[in-house]
Amino acid sequence: MIFAVLIPLLIACFIPFISKIKHKIHTGYFVFFVPFLIFLYFIQFIGEGFNPIRQTVNWIPSLGINFDFYLDGLSLLFVLLISGIGALVVLYSIFYLDNQERLGHFYVYLLMFMTAMLGVVLSDNIFVLYTFWELTSISSFLLIGYWHFKERSRYGALKSMIITIFGGLSMFGGFILLSVITGTTSIQEMITQTDVILASDYLPLILGFILLGAFTKSAQFPFHIWLPDAMEAPTPVSAYLHSATMVKAGIFLVARFSPIFSTYEWFFIIVSLVGIITLCWGSYMAVRQTDLKAILAFSTISQLGMIMAMLGFGTQAAVFAAVFHILNHATFKGSLFMVAGIIDHETGTRDIRKLGGLLTLMPMTATLALFGTFSMAGVPLPFLNGFYSKELFFGSTLGLEANALSQAIPYLAVLGSIFTFVYSMYFFFGVFTGPKQFKLLPKKPHEAPIGMLISPIVLVIGVVVIGLFPSLVNAPFLLHAAEAVNSAVEFEQISFWHGFKTPLFMSLAVVGIGTLLVLTRKKWNSVYTVLPGKLSFNKVYDKLLEKIDTYSANITNYYMNGSLKTYMSLILGTTLVVTFSFMLLTDGFTMKFDNLADITILELSVVLIMIIAAIATVFMNHNVAAILVLGVVGFGVAILFVIYRAPDIALTQLVVETISVALFLLCFYHLPKLKKSTDSARTKLVNATIAVGFGALMTVIGISAHSSNWFDSISEYFLETSYTLGGGDNVVNVILVDMRGLDTLFEIAVLGIAALAIIGLIKHKKKKGAE
Question: Per the database record, which ranges form the NADH:quinone oxidoreductase/Mrp antiporter transmembrane domain (predicted)?
Fold first, then answer.
């Protein structure tokens, strides 16, 4: 499994080289086989006898962080959606994106995102899951902002990353608490300790943090505002990220942790309420939109709310319906995004006010849109898969325990579904029927090439096949996914006709009232001036960012005044206060003066000279004198190392001190001469307090470190293994070169980067002076 997860990322490394021949063959043809082969590999696991598979590859075993992959029915459903629709999206992009586009960048980002999503749904280790989770945010940021020369693309990319990463960090906090409580990083092992988690005092925090991550990623109310702005991405990105993959990551997270939280009352309240509100608000706002992708964006928000609500219900019927709708939504919504892209590609606009009458000129596209929109609307036809899962959704709202929320949910479900019907009909009939307005279109409309139609055709075939034979995917596929969420789910026969029962009457009410609203839409459309009117969560987001930027700038401008003295005072003062407070609160000060070596007159003399030199430095008025007197302190430290029989360290100190003094002399040669301080008495008092306090703090920390014995000394380990592991008798050298080899390497790298920066600044100054 790990190979299947990482192969897209490995192939992405070669895309920059492959993309150089894009003038001969489109890069997408090479990329297509990656998700397609992954899909073929995982499809073999579909079957009634499927059992979960676990695979572990060590990463950081000392911290319990390993690549623990777990394939069960739920992860298999998502893996097949990620790889299957991923392959169709790549095929679609071959004909949608011109060779003049930055194809190398596009497919690298896409493959990076594919790896991230596969890692999310297959990871059993919570910290590995979090790593992949944040990689989805980063890669989606790059994909949404692919057309970076557009201001709206940059805005949408940044907005999506800020909101989803905020949720991701919250989720990370919940994961840390879970690992502390259970003593494990495995989700499956946590499920076996459900009683321990539910009995924890931290349960509300854990639930809140994890749900924040899920709600932000799956665009739940009120975090839904990033999704419509993400539609600035190319249509293949929208079809992939916002119909089948990224936005369903939050759905997956809630489903994966449902076995732990489903019996907790607040889980039902929060998830169900947020989900049903998102369903109603998303569907209501979709009717207001004029951009085809904006309609589909709010449609996605409402459909995700519907799935989230069912997971919140937690009943057997609701969980099965949620899993079924995840599959159905991916088929009809993926095809509709591609249809929107075709219309934009062939007419030059997505503005529904300029479209109309395209049925005769684009019959294939219109047919695909017909199946997609009517399935999304839940029209009761036996060849539309959307009707089945919507009917199961209605049924699941009726079997909840009696309380105020559960009594209102069926009515809210019907309300949200009515507007779902309205925007579906609005989408189809607004584009393909009505008066022809071809003069308003930037391009003369015509049918799309067959290559661009193949992917939506495959998805629509999925809509029809599942609609005609719903039980075909039930026992061998959907049931396993539902059992991973609720082990009590049993085989449920999916059929079109259930008799004259309440769900059917709810569906008829949706169609009847929805049709009436469609026919009278222009008469009641003014309701949007009242609700939401001028209210907008986007305005709240923009205002919040504006305030953060303003206050951040004010704070930064306050202390970034160009004074090195101010910077050092702030750094040392903050370190003094924070460190002292923390050590005081944690009883970190330990003073023991036993087991100390005797102090001779020689050592006292050296220390006394160092103290006098350090104090004298403050009163020096000449650069060279100050540097030389300060050097006495450094050389005094070297003498102490010699006295205490540490010649290697003494030699290192001598070299460092000599180089430092030389560098100071070179630098101070170009600096103005020292002047007598003109600081006020108050400033001098503050500086003296910080200096004395920081010095005293370091002294106390040194004594406390010597007096404390919290851990076994590591010196014996170095003495025993310096020769066998490092191949050297000089323990200090072995530690620096071998034991701490990476530290030394990074230190050298930092120095190298600093040197390059200095060279760049010098060259920039010379170039500026020459100009």
Answer: 123-408
Total domains in the fold of the chain:
3
Structure tokens belonging to residue 107: 């497919």
Q: Do residues 268 and 401 lie in contact, with contact meaning Cβ atoms separated by under 8 Å?
A: no
Q: Could you write out the three-class secondary structure of 283-316?
A: HHHHCCCCEHHHHHHHHHHHHHHHHHHHHHHCCH
Give φ, ψ of 60 to 5 degrees: -130, 75
Q: How does DSSP classify residue 494?
A: -
C-alpha distance from residue 179 to each of 131, 379, 485 (Å): 15, 46, 21
Q: Which tens digit of pLDDT belongs to each residue from 730-765?
A: 888 888 788 877 788 888 888 888 888 888 877 776
* Chain segment 515-565, per-residue pLDDT in tens: 999 999 989 999 998 888 888 888 899 999 999 999 999 988 888 888 888
Closest CA to 433 of 478, 389, 370, 379: 370
Shared domain check, 594 and 509: no
Does this model's pTM top 0.85? Answer: no
**In the prediction, which pLDDT does 338 show?**
95
Do residues 640 and 653 lie in contact, with contact meaning Cβ atoms separated by under 8 Å?
Answer: no
In a domain, 108, yes or no: no
Same domain assignment for residues 740 and 596: no
Average pLDDT, the chain: 90
Of 512, 529, 546, the one marking the end of a domain is 529
Q: Confirm whether 206 is domain-assigned.
A: no
- Whether cis (ω within 30° of 0) applies to the bond prior to 380 is no
**Angle subtended by helix axes 385-398 and 316-347, to nearest 10:** 140
The Cα–Cα gap between 709 and 606 comes to: 29
Peptide bond before residue 532 is cis, with ω within 30 degrees of 0 = yes
Which distant-in-sequence residues (6+ apart) come within 8 Å of 579 by Cβ?
697, 701
Structure tokens at 591: 């003073």
What DSSP character marks residue 496?
S
Give the single-character DSSP code of 49.
Answer: T
Has residue 31 been placed in a domain?
no
Distance, first Cα to last Cα, the chain:
59
- Say yes or no: 625 and 681 in one domain: yes
- pLDDT tens figures, 416-464: 999 999 999 999 999 999 888 888 888 889 999 999 999 999 999 999 9
Q: Which amino acid is at 438?
A: F
296 and 445 part of one domain: yes
Q: Length of the chain, please?
A: 771
**Contact yes or no for 250/217 (Cβ under 8 A):** yes
Rounded (10°) CA dihedral 228, 230, 232, 238: -100
C-alpha 461/C-alpha 36 separation (Å) is 18
DSSP bridge pairs for 55:
69
Q: Where in the sequence is the domain holding 390, given as residue range(s)?
A: 262-529
